[in-house]
User: What shape does this take?
Amino acid sequence: MKAEIITIGDEILLGQVVDTNSAWLGQQLFDLQIHVQQITSITDSEEHILQALTEASQRADVIICTGGLGPTRDDVTKATAAKFFQTELVHNEEVLEHVKQIFARFNRTMPDMNYGQASILANAEVLFNDWGTAPGMWVQQGEQVFIFLPGVPYEMKNLMQHRAIPKLKAFHSAEKLVLRYILTVGIGESHLAESIADIEDSFPSSAHLAYLPKIGMVRLRLTLNGKDLKELNRTADDLQQRLIDRIGSAVIATEDLSFEEVIVRDFVKHNCTLATAESCTGGNIARLITEVSGASEMFLGAIVSYANEVKVSQLGVSEETLKEHGAVSEETVIQMAKGAQERLHTSYAVATSGIAGPGGGTAEKPVGMIWVAVAGKNSVQTKLFQFHGDRLINIERATNQALLMLWNLYRQENQD
Amino acid sequence: MKAEIITIGDEILLGQVVDTNSAWLGQQLFDLQIHVQQITSITDSEEHILQALTEASQRADVIICTGGLGPTRDDVTKATAAKFFQTELVHNEEVLEHVKQIFARFNRTMPDMNYGQASILANAEVLFNDWGTAPGMWVQQGEQVFIFLPGVPYEMKNLMQHRAIPKLKAFHSAEKLVLRYILTVGIGESHLAESIADIEDSFPSSAHLAYLPKIGMVRLRLTLNGKDLKELNRTADDLQQRLIDRIGSAVIATEDLSFEEVIVRDFVKHNCTLATAESCTGGNIARLITEVSGASEMFLGAIVSYANEVKVSQLGVSEETLKEHGAVSEETVIQMAKGAQERLHTSYAVATSGIAGPGGGTAEKPVGMIWVAVAGKNSVQTKLFQFHGDRLINIERATNQALLMLWNLYRQENQD
Assistant: This one.
């Protein structure tokens, strides 16, 4: 079954909001064997909405529209959808009561403007919204479904999970899709591709291999399409295993895991623990690790030592070192890593110190210069990086490189 | 001038990657007075790419295509674009030398597969890529431009900044767009809308007001379209001032700033400093603050105390408190905030402790139960939250609420 997502609102087009909704929807729909073929982000103008609805309705079985359902004037999705379906908006007393209750729950009276929220497409089934005031709508026309959801991520996700997905499960698709993943570290995309070229050549026409590169790593995604799920799974397992055998030790995961998930899982398995001592990354490494469910089994904590006084008082960096070599130096970053390891009693610690920018650079220590240290069971490793991005890119790259260095030292010290 | 963005690649549709490129491109193009009208994400199949290119070329002046330029077989953008333009791919020796140099810079030999990277659309001008191996391309046809860029964010951004934007600046548009922002805290979207309804009623037809709600705050975006930039700016300033006067103290910023940027700017202005003591948010508050350029002037550091031992050793939480009330308790979170404030010598500290999930919940302390404390100059404030999201949503909401509580206490104690 094919789906398209239409997101409505200028904020995405102006780049003020990153569209995280669509990625989340893509994952949820994939689990239902519904495959998103296109995501279209448009302005909240009637003309654009009509055009996008028309085009999507010619291609997809399920069309999910997010955004523009609020009570304010810039929200035109509902009125436009009525035009598209050649129907009208009708007042729904049950929805009005529900919206009033939502306001009552927060001890607020409902502003008059919200009466409009009780206007529902005449051909729609209401998806009651317990997480906000704009109701969702489900419009079924023969074998085609249109789902209208608010754009606020929290409301959209809850409405989808609790209202729309149970209804979508009633649909069924003959076309099956099977996926396999291989996460590799330390081998470039094209070298990897050359080393497995003959295996790729021998793929059946139903199989497709995608290369998803990220700093220092490449994720391979193997996709198989067909009708016989059992047969697809057998072929997928076979192809995946042939790739794994060929790629060898660069393979660090054979499931759809993030690098952080691999680190957490492996550290737990080997009873290793981790702390971070972060200056320029500002807690970003700790944040990524703790986003992984189960991180508390291996991650004990972090010292974000943004100020030099905190490097001294909380990590034991010596004042002489700071004076002589500066905060952005190999000496300091080693003391930071060791300080975190000793004070938090962990087997591993990773430390960063650098100039993320845009300010703070000098001729000797320019913006983007970042030291990383990893302290392990038996040794400390350091590396100097010179990035050329903006502040956020420099932070992201330093974070990725720190995790890669941590992983490499960990693997040296903990061979299976 | 109108633009459309086409992103090519299954990973966005499958939800494995969030499309951050488009938001970044939207911002950059807006600064050039080029307005993104649509973002289309499609699979990397020839049929979809041809359809998207055809549709976009009928509507937009500038079409930016990202993704599918790599050397591997799943990358079909170049060959498909050649079909679209009814031209061919030609070998470019200069590009080949450039790609070889990129490999040489990393002390690697170029795999044969990369010879294909030197194949360039016959009608294109090369955008040389110093940040990766896939060259970008610029195709100009009369008043219309097509820009092809790799999908890797780091490469895409650099190619855009250093190669494409200088060329785009040569274009000019008669239609001008002027924006104004108002960031408000603590007033709901519909209450806000009601309170300014008469001002909105009096808007000229060239003006448009958008409401962008987020947890606890609403951002207003005022857009004006027209030909006379001076006149547009005068009207925008006038309308913005009328809104600010009406909304009053709920206005916390009148520029396009994030909440974190407002906090950093205001703390610096009032010589206030901040530390965080984070358990369930895992460094996410520190990360958001330190993403703001200039944060080092007010942010001294964070203690991410994921393990109880770290709460005791690094923040001075008493073992009796942990035994008697547990880590997720008002008593603990107060001691965490005070501990960070005292040990890092800051005027403010914010602390979080809770159960982000999915594991770790009990009947008494269910998943989503999160305590937040803010320690200020004269007082400590606490609040208990019960969220119902998944792990990432709970972390995000706890982070937002912690920043809101910090802001409210800060404002009480530092009136201008």
About this structure: The radius of gyration of chain B is 26 Å. Chain B touches chain A through 111 residues (CB under 8 Å). The mean pLDDT of chain B is 92. The longest strand of chain B covers residues 176-185.
